[in-house]
Automatic annotation (TrEMBL):
<feature type="domain" description="Peptidase M1 membrane alanine aminopeptidase">
    <location>
        <begin position="419"/>
        <end position="583"/>
    </location>
</feature>
<protein>
    <submittedName>
        <fullName>M1 family metallopeptidase</fullName>
    </submittedName>
</protein>
<dbReference type="GO" id="GO:0008237">
    <property type="term" value="F:metallopeptidase activity"/>
</dbReference>
<dbReference type="Pfam" id="PF01433">
    <property type="entry name" value="Peptidase_M1"/>
</dbReference>
<dbReference type="InterPro" id="IPR027268">
    <property type="entry name" value="Peptidase_M4/M1_CTD_sf"/>
</dbReference>
<dbReference type="InterPro" id="IPR014782">
    <property type="entry name" value="Peptidase_M1_dom"/>
</dbReference>
<keyword id="KW-0732">Signal</keyword>
<feature type="signal peptide">
    <location>
        <begin position="1"/>
        <end position="20"/>
    </location>
</feature>
<dbReference type="GO" id="GO:0008270">
    <property type="term" value="F:zinc ion binding"/>
</dbReference>
Amino acid sequence: MRVLKFLCLSIAFISLNAMAQDQNQEEARKPGHTNQNKFKQLYDEFATPNMFRTGSGAPGPAYYQQQADYKIDLEINDETAVLSGNETITYTNNSPDELTYLWIQLDQNVRSKDSPSNDINSSNVTPALSASRFASSYMSESFDGGFNIESVTSTGGKALTHMINQTMMRVELPTAMKTGDKYSFNIKWWYQINNHVTDGGRSGYELFPDGNRNYVIAQFYPRMAVYNDVEGWQNSQFWGRDEFALPFGNFEVNITVPADHLLDGTGKLMNREDLFSSDMMKRYEKAKKSYNEPVVISTQDEAEAREKGRSKKKNTWTLYAENVRDFGFATSRKYIWDMMAVKLGDRDVMAVSLYSKEGNPLWEQWSTKAVASTLKSYSRMTFDYPYHKAISVHAKRQGMEYPMICWNYGRPDENGKYDDRTKYGMMSVIIHEVGHNFFPMIVNSDERQWTWMDEGLNTFMQYVAEQDFGEWYPKALSSGDAAYPSRRGPAKNITGYMGGNQDYIAPIMTKGLNTYQFGNNAYGKPATSLNILRETVMGRELFDYAFKEYTHRWMFKHPTPEDFFRTMEDASAFDLDWYWRGWFYSTDWVDIGLKEVKKYYVSSEPNQYAKNYAQSRNLNLDELKLVYLVEEDSDEFDERLRKGTSADNSPSLKEYMMDNFTAEERKTIKQPKYFYDITFEKPGGLVMPIIVEFTYADGTTKTETYPAQIWRLNDNEVSKAIASEKEIVSIKLDPKLETADIDTSNNSWPKEVKDSDFDKFKNKVKG
């Protein structure tokens, strides 16, 4: 090593002195510029830490959040598909501010007949359409599924002044709320439930040919908006894409449906014994002790028998939930119902599935196991799932999440057959939607503003959970799949998007409504960026510790992007401002290439560089006793240099070794014979670590990773001097495709020559 240091110091000494003497003083006095360095800290972008949110990314000593508690009575008229409700909201003002009005979310108003939600999207006339598409586009009346608010009153029955602006309702308070005050008021309402299969949407019903419906109901009640330290009231309108920002609270909900319906939803079922048959209760008790296989609570035969009837009687299902941000439920007479227990820490949690016979055999095989596996994976990476159950409901063309319950697609054909796409699609959507219990149902980010904070983080975790699922349940994998074929997460899967037309790409830090490619921007890119951060930049140990710290700090609270960014750095001692800036605040892409590789040998003869240096300074080269390096492809190179060691080829080096090392030390000292000057270029804007795989003449390989900070002083190209005892025959960048490099054609030395499409065609014809 000391020989290598000597060589490097000698070369550096010559280079630095030459640069200092030859520096053009006029050139050094260029006009100033602002700091555009990729490693500039994010102080300009971040809010100043305060008593509410600290510089470490943790909640501050004055952090607060509001609470909204609900008592709701609901009824579904199965003949008219109308949902009516009467609710009492009790709002607690924990903020230091005085409130004179409250904002309520009326998300169903996005379906109002006069909603402007469709008018914000561009549309064109399509010259040829199917008759059904033409009729629905131009001949049918718009479905009117908005809220009908019958009354807004105090608990004493006095009407409260209120104003509705699209999907938001402002309620004037009779008396201003001070810190610590509670206020209760009533809202009575109803709306026409939409057919989500034909009309779209996250909530609604599927109508089956026999007239039965499967209801998956959410965003169904007027809900309190969030009030916080970041922006006051979060009263951004709901246009149909950006999801929700909600405070936590307790829910007491009574839901009246036909007596032959089964129902489950957010919260604990309080009157199970009144609603379950004795056989169902026995099966339920058995399921609570079954950890490996689901137990069927309501069988397919029982479901098919219920499908044939239309009970005129009614049952009321009572659910109670504590500390949840929302409420959803599903009901139908078609349900098959199964459950199994999942051990999480010292608690048992029930993994549950509700599905119609149309979902079998796929759903009975894998739905509940996917729920159970997801709870285990997410709990390992974050915190033990705190609720008592997680439900997967089969719903056509759906993928949506609420506390303790979610709707998921994936349906075999009419003969019960399904392909890999259907199977993996169903498993993945269940993993994803169940995972949303953690983000944002518990780590309660603002989906309306920062879609990536729930979808991106959750898609990253989905990738981890999918790989676990494939490992824990190998029978779930199709023949030939060694691992679960995750669609999002691996770096190579995002390169097409990142390297695409920049006119149609937005930074991750963009409101979801305003992104061009919603799936790639809110799901794919942030998930991939976190996977790269974990696997390549930070390493699993540092990443996992910091990620878990973030979830523990912000579970049951309202984090912002800055809280996430700051916590990840605070808990890892890893400066990541450059990473957040590049991946989240810009649309830059990764492209790092090998620009040039030069090979050198040690020589005893002064090279032209040394001669010029000595002559310009009137120095005697013999007195300097330098070690000379000559490039293999230069006129100064002599083939004899390939044979000797560095000491053999340089008297100065040999003399230095004799004077500074003992005979024993000289026996063990390394003598590199091959010297390489490798220049890396960066056509892409993102700074990333440089991962280099060296292949040697003896067939062995070695991988080196140079930190991203190597680009801090030169954003275009950097070089590394490599001294090696073995000859390097090839060099490859990012050999495992870890960095999302969009162009790998410049990643190899010698440059790989790939056949053009025409050459491939010719070779195919010849074959």
